[in-house]
Amino acid sequence: MKKLLSLLAAGILCSAALSSETFVDLYNPPFGGNSIFKLSNPTMISGGASASGGPVFTVLPVSITYNPALPATEQRSVINASWTGIINTVNAQNSDGTFGNIFQLGTIIPTRYLVIAASAQGTFANFSNMDIGNNIIIHAGVSKDVTDKLYVGMNLYTGFYLGHGSDFTVGADLGLLYTMNDQGFLKNPRLGISLTNLGKPLNGNFQSLGFNGSRDYINYPGIITPRVSYAATLLSIQNFNIGFSTDLYFPEFMDVAADVGLALAYSDIVQFCIGWEADLREILNGAPLNWPSIGLNIRLTINSKKIAEGNEAWEKSEIVPALAWKNLYGGMEAVSAGASLYLGQKDTKAPEIYLWDDSADLIDDSIFETEEVKSEE
Questions:
Q1: This prediction's pTM
Q2: Fewer CB within 10 Å, N- or C-terminus of the chain?
């Protein structure tokens, strides 16, 4: 814990130093630019955008954009698709659109040695209040368990930005997840650390309206962004669980931002989630504090005996529909919907080991005869 606090303090000091007047004109992302991957998915919008897996530890393909180590905990293949509509309720300028779209598609595939994950996102949202533009970005990565408590992962990504000019980005993400023993009343605590967007950022060929009102230097999400996250279960009573997660991250070491999530889960079937975020530099440039986002996930079981013929592990799968709403910037609203398909069942049984087959007489009963019996014979 002391090391974690030291890391957070160092990040804040670095961000404060690099946010001085010398660098103020070099950091100018659009409003919402650092949250671009969160906006593509309802679970991410409502508190799941976390390097520790969110308040109730939900891992989706898009989770690798926050910590590529997270899929290492998943035993089943996962397919996820989602859509978010961005609605401009103000439309103060005639040049503004009234509607934007963000699409996301991803998968997680466990193998014997590694877990493979990939996520593709398409964003089409040009607004003066949140000019995150038109882009397509693809992440693909691998993750693995090092010990029973430590998981590591790495991504590679590339993307294209279109609209006011064009440009491309390419790079890598690194991450680790550490699960800890219970700490007092905190159950199942988790620590996530990631270093994202290590690569080529946008350059002057692509123009977008930054939060300081200029188009001189646009770069988002922030390159070399460290993130530290802690999550745990606050309360567990019979079938009810309440969990929380909190993330601090430092885009380009020129900003300080936070993501907080809180979730109420009933018997792993229904989850009601609340998320809230704050970006210091956006607030200093006039962005109001956003209302908390809300989301709902429902887990449904699918019986597939015909598909699973010959392999009972595939007899039941699960589908999780999700909905979320989030208030954004200056009259912008986000409404998101999606679904995740978990193929097969979790392996929760320990392996059974047979020393001999009861149906066959593999033991010579004569070895149990005593010397007395033998003498009588």
A1: 0.82
A2: C
